[in-house]
Write a structure and sequence with these properties.
mainly beta, Mannose-Binding Protein A, Chain A, CTDL_fold, C-type_lectin-like, C-type_lectin-like/link_sf, eight-stranded mixed beta sheet, C-type lectin domain-containing protein
Length: 130
């Protein structure tokens, strides 16, 4: 990981060349108030992106002690990304997803499995730049 010097990413974003991924850590907040003014909530659509997120967040629990909210919504006809694309990669935890919850998060202390939660739960998050 390194700061982009190519102009690919906005200021204050980090660039990971292998995944062509610009990202920014954001503060812990209630899921309902997540804000990514220069991008969108992180989208995990491959195992490689899941593994990279695990790597870059492995030692941040003293700063971000909440689970990591990620992009995805329950539409009633499956889980989809914010642009409406069906999610084909998932990493659901045991007994997940719950049908009555609409927010996704990665649980660091449970090997980064995915779980659903309500919008009132605190989470840390990453924004990505398109």
């Amino acid at each position: 990981m390194n700061k982009s010097r190519t102009g690919r990413c906005p200021d204050n974003f980090i660039f990971y060349r292998q995944l062509d991924f610009c990202y920014q850590f954001r503060p812990t907040i209630k899921a309902a108030y997540i804000s990514c003014p220069l991008g969108k909530l992180q989208r995990i659509d491959t195992e490689e992106k899941q593994n990279y997120t695990m790597k870059i967040t492995a030692d941040i629990e003293l700063v971000y002690n909440a689970a990591i909210c990620i992009q995805g919504k329950n539409t009633g006809s499956g889980w989809k990304f914010l642009d409406g694309t069906l999610m084909t990669y998932t990493n659901w935890g045991w007994n997940q997803p719950f049908k009555n919850a609409n927010q996704l998060r990665m649980i660091r202390w449970k090997n980064y499995v995915w779980a659903t939660t309500s919008d009132t739960v605190n989470c840390s998050y990453l924004c990505e730049y398109p």
